[in-house]
Write a structure and sequence with these properties.
This protein is of the alpha+beta class. It has two domains: 281 residues, no CATH class; 80 residues. It has ten helices and six strands; from the N terminus they run ααααββββββαααααα. It has a six-stranded antiparallel β-sheet with strand order 1-2-3-4-5-6. Helix 4 packs antiparallel against helix 5 and helix 8 packs antiparallel against helix 9. It is elongated.
């Protein structure tokens, strides 16, 4: 195969791959983007911090969108080459389908290594960066929310009132706090001065109160206590609030080390670890889908049709659904101990990979796959009727 043909096919696939990668990643991130925009509107978080958060959670989505983009780009590019009769011209020039497959498999192997790198190193890096950024946001939030002569009730279980902030900084005068975080207890705190500082070890924002009193009432015993203090540290627990948001944003984003540690911990406690073992094997099997999708995409992409691009989208959606339905089904069987956890991640790859090799051999021998031809004819029929409908309207 000549270098010109190799790079021509590779260029055709690459630009579609990057377009698909960007589009699919944005679609999957959309829900998270709305949640993060809410932080800008309601919490006063800077756009820079939000962009950093998106960067840190991106690896958890890229490990899925990269294989999807390989399939989409392969189907669309070979569909276009087939509909423009370029595949036929290349075959007439002595270029076999196996030779045309080389640029695709090279791209798929590179995508596989990139996705594996993201699984092994990108996820832990993203998780650490995500938590650190949330802590920075928590610190900033404390400075913004504690304003003078305003009852600040943004902190769970706390109401904070500050009479005066002499200078734009962290010193406050005339602090009143009502604390109901302990069940059955109510604390009212008066202090002449207060200072905000950060505790890196506990990742908390602390309000240090100077020269004040604590008026404590216990509901169960109906007792009242009055305590005087020179200094008293009150944790605002902003970091915990943002970490709770973080847990919702990354429910399935544990690193390999975290999964292994959880498996060991559960085994020592005598609990079932099937779910964690399934997740562990899935982290290595999902990147391999890049190669599987490349094998399937080439023979399906060259099936004769009038519109290679639109049919490519339909085939992509159907294969995505079939693959992830089989992946979910195998996970369910593994969690119920009906199959080994190892097969939960790899069974779909073996199934779809074998099917793709079968299609590739048939396509190389100019033997079309019957069901794909029927589906193409059905799509052509629907597309023609749709066009006629709009022409008559």
């Amino acid at each position: 195969m000549k270098k010109t043909t190799f790079f021509y096919v590779l260029k055709e696939v690459l630009h579609l791959f990057f377009i698909g990668l960007m589009t699919l990643t944005i679609i999957l991130l959309m829900d998270k983007i709305f949640k993060l925009i809410e932080l800008i509107v309601t919490r006063g978080t800077s756009v820079t911090h939000i962009l950093r958060l998106l960067m840190f959670i991106a690896p958890s989505f890229l490990i899925f969108t990269i294989p999807m983009s390989i399939l989409l780009a392969t189907l669309l590019s070979f569909g276009r080459l087939s509909s423009d009769n370029e595949i036929t011209a290349l075959k007439a020039s002595g270029v076999s389908l196996y030779q045309l497959f080389w640029p695709i498999i090279c791209l798929a192997v590179v995508a596989y290594f990139v996705t594996t790198f993201l699984v092994l190193y990108g996820l832990p890096w993203g998780n650490r960066g995500f938590i650190n950024t949330l802590y920075v946001i928590a610190q900033t939030k404390a400075d913004i929310d504690l304003k003078e002569r305003v009852f600040n009730d943004d902190f769970e279980g706390l109401v904070v009132y500050v009479d005066k902030v002499p200078t734009q900084g962290r010193k406050m005068e005339g602090v009143l706090i009502h604390d109901e975080r302990e069940e059955g207890k109510s604390n009212t705190i008066f202090s002449t001065e207060g200072y905000l500082f950060n505790d890196p070890k506990s990742q908390e924002v602390v309000l240090r109160l100077v020269h004040g009193e604590i008026h404590r009432f216990e509901l169960k015993t109906q007792t009242y206590h009055r305590i005087q203090f020179d200094t008293y540290d009150l944790k605002l627990e902003l970091a915990k609030t943002f970490e709770a948001i973080g847990r919702k944003l990354k429910e399935h984003e544990m690193s390999i080390d975290e999964i292994e540690a959880k498996i060991d911990r559960l085994k020592k406690a005598g609990e079932d670890t099937a779910s964690q073992e399934v997740e562990f094997h899935k982290r290595f099997s999902v990147p391999f889908a890049c190669i599987v999708f490349a094998i399937i995409g080439v023979p399906l992409g060259i099936q004769p049709s009038r519109s290679g691009r639109s049919h490519g989208f339909v085939f992509s959606i159907l294969i995505f659904l079939a693959y992830y339905i089989s992946l979910t089904a195998s996970e369910t069987f593994a969690v119920r101990r009906m199959i080994p956890p190892f097969l939960a991640g790899w069974a779909p790859n073996v199934l779809f990979g074998s099917f793709g090799i079968y299609l590739l051999v048939k396509a190389a021998n100019d033997s079309p796959f019957g069901p794909s031809l029927w589906l193409n004819q059905l799509l052509d029929f629907v597309q023609e009727k749709w066009r006629q409908f709009f022409e008559n309207v």
